[in-house]
Each structure stands twice: as structure tokens, then as C-alpha cells.
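Z., the sequence and structure:
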Amino acid sequence: MIITRAPLRVSFVGGGTDLPDFYRRYPGRVISTAIDKFVYLVINRTPLIPKVSARYSVSETVDHPKNLQHTRIRAALLDLGIEKGLEIGSFASLPAKTGLGSSSSFSVALMKGLHAYRGKKIDKKEAAEAACRLEIELVKEPIGKQDQYAAAFGGFNIFQFNSDGTVDIEPILLDYKKQTLLEDHMLIFFTGISRTASSVLTEQKSRIDEHFETYKKMADSVFDFKEKLIKGDIKGMAEILHQGWLHKKSLASNVSNNLIDSLYEAGLKTGAWGGKILGAGGGGCIMFLSPIDKKPAIRLAVNEIAKANNLSDFCEIPVKLVQSGCDIIFNGDI
């Protein structure tokens, strides 16, 4: 049995500049951190059962992986030539489609585990690229590379996406005090609105030429955000987040909607310095950076809007920053 674990992530600025239609013409950049929420994959050898089983929100057992409904597991097994004798189960700290990169965390954990199943140890970069290939080339998702790298490497990083497809990683080493300062001023809420990133990014990709200068500003804002982060200037970081959110909303019609705007404006009116929707947009999680003493008022305001709009799954998600990336946490017999 093999058990792998990959963290979810919070992306601060630069999201969307990891799309190849942009970074082939100008360096894309994203600054993000791994958080203490994870996707777990269990790969169990079943040599006496010549079938393939996949257990996630549903359960599938088939004679050949080509018959699986789960697109990522199906594509990965077919690509690696694994046809029978295993079952794969997935578990997660949070629901899917929250804007925290869970799909790519799943893919990184899956590829790390399947290579181990075949007797090959792959490093962080290889795991990230294997997941990128799975999602972008094999499954044909209209997504970028940031989430796969964030899940594979863990920690706080700037990822730069170059025109030749390579990715440069710049780790940001925060001392304990600055990390705790950021955690203490952060509020994240799951809106209860689920959506797939591809549904938002398809339109966004089709309009990159139209918004090219905006994308350049978003990529370059990573440097300003890093400077504020190193200084511990949370308010300055929040202001950059706010500007980035305004830029992001202009990229496609489905990045935001009236309900998300209402939640965001409620946070600002009750004291938040700034924030954004995490992920591609259209739903998922909303994040604020705020003074600590304003947090109770922000919680009350957004929860009232959620209740008025019957968002039954709306909830706050406490997070801590983590250094760990994707790991194999067990490989052996039970």
C-alpha cells in the first residue's frame, strides 16, 4: 500500500499569468503558500483481483482503466500502462472546487503515488511536471501550472513561468513571527458556491490578447507583494490583493457575480483592508486580510449575507502555513 499527501494552497497575486497563452510572450509569476489542508491518495495493490477500482465521491470497479469515469485516474493509468491489480482511494480535508487547488493537489499526489507503484521515485519538480502533463496535455484542462507546483513543492514561493515552458522557483523564507502575523490577519471563508476552474478559465483564455497589459501588471505585482510580505506590512499586502482582485474581475464575465461582490464589499465595509476570491473565481473561497480586532465584525457581516442567500455550506476555514509539499507518507505492506 502507498499513501501520498499533497497540500492545498492559497494564491495571493499573479493568478492567471501561469496560462501558456500569456507566459509564452511575457514571464508569468505567482506568489502562493501551501496550507495545512491536504489531499490524501491511497494506492493498494490487489494482485489477486485483476481489476481497477477508484474510490472518491463515488466508487468504480472496472476490468480496464479505459472504462473509468474519473478523468485524471483514467488518463494517468492509461498513460503509465497500468491496467489491473490496484485500487485507488482519495480523501481530503476540504470539499473539491473551493479555489484552493485541490484538483491539482490530487493530480500531484496521484502521479507521485503511481510512479512509486511502478518502483520509481520522482522528485518535486518531476511530480509537478507529471501532474501538469496529466491535467493540461492528457485531460485537456484549460488551466495553468501554478497549482501543481505549489502542491509539489509546498512552502511559500514565487513561481515564474517562462516562455520555454520551464518554471523557476524562488522560496520565500519567513521567520516565525512574520508567518504568525500573516496567519493572524487572514480570514478565509468557503462561500458554499462550487465551480470548476475550467468553466471560468475557458473564457479567460479566449480574452488574453484583449487584457494582455492587465496580465503584465498582475505578473509584475508579485515583486511588490513580496516586498510588503518581507517587511510584515499586512495592510500593504491587502491593498495589492484588492487591486489584483479588481484586475482579475476584468478578465472574464464569470470571475465574479453579485453574490460574491456582496460578500466582498461586506468584508471591506466592516474593516477588511483587502482580499480576493481564491482560485479562478466564480465561487470557492473568499479571503480577507484585516485588523485582528475587525475579524468578529467581518465574520458577522458575511455570515448574514450567506444566511440571507441560503448558502448552507458557507463556513470559515482556519488555516496555517506549511512547508511540506507532496510526500509519500507510507509505502509498504499492512
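The chain has a mean pLDDT of 94. The chain is about 40% helix and 25% strand.

Let me know what you think.
H.
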